[in-house]
Amino acid sequence: MASGGLQLLGFVLAFLGWIGIIISTAMPQWKMASYAGDNIVTAQALYEGLWMSCAMQSTGQIQCKVYDSLLKLEGSLQATRALMVAAILLGLVAIFVAVTGMKCMKCMEDDQVKKMRMAVFGGVIFIIAGLAALVATSWYGNRVARAFYDPFTPVNTRFEFGSALFIGWAAASLAILGGAFLCCSCPRRETSYPPTRGYPKNAPSTGKDYV
């Protein structure tokens, strides 16, 4: 009963992490323009994401522009895109696999060992998806931080971490944690011991001693 609750908790956490990865991938706020300079006065906020760049005016109006050509993008941005999309697809596969192995589902009830192994396999895929998203967001954040502290970067072109990065880090952590909980439902191997040998019973004494 306890393993079933842990399994359900792990699936819920991993599913929420997968939803967060999708949201983070679609958001344009992967990095936002920094206004740390002394003499910077602007009436708009600039954001850049994996698929588009946006400018929000002081009136609240947002204008976004999708990147024109895939070939003109930086290789690191293309790799980040690929990792996030791979994390989403892996999470989708993990959901179907883990649901099949959940104790509350009626699939594969005739073989409980295989059923639990399916849940564990789904947890492993969730962990891989979380690691892919974690690598993508950390790599992107590292590039933003290096460009920010680069003395050759103009002050008016520096960017800081956007909200999509923080959502991506949290979502990746949830996916990894949920996958780990699912893996904790791994069936234990039963140790087989050799059958115990019975000791022969003593023959009843006849009262005669033989020399």
UniProtKB/TrEMBL annotation:
GO terms for cellular component: bicellular tight junction; plasma membrane. Pfam families: PMP22_Claudin. The chain crosses the membrane at residues 7-27, 79-99, 119-141, 161-184. It is a multi-pass membrane protein. Gene3D superfamilies: 1.20.140.150. Its main location: other. It is found in: Cell junction, Tight junction; Cell membrane. Keywords: Cell junction, Cell membrane, Membrane, Tight junction, Transmembrane, Transmembrane helix. GO terms for molecular function: structural molecule activity. It comes from the Eukaryota. Claudins function as major constituents of the tight junction complexes that regulate the permeability of epithelia. Belongs to the claudin family. This is Claudin. It comes from Nyctibius grandis.
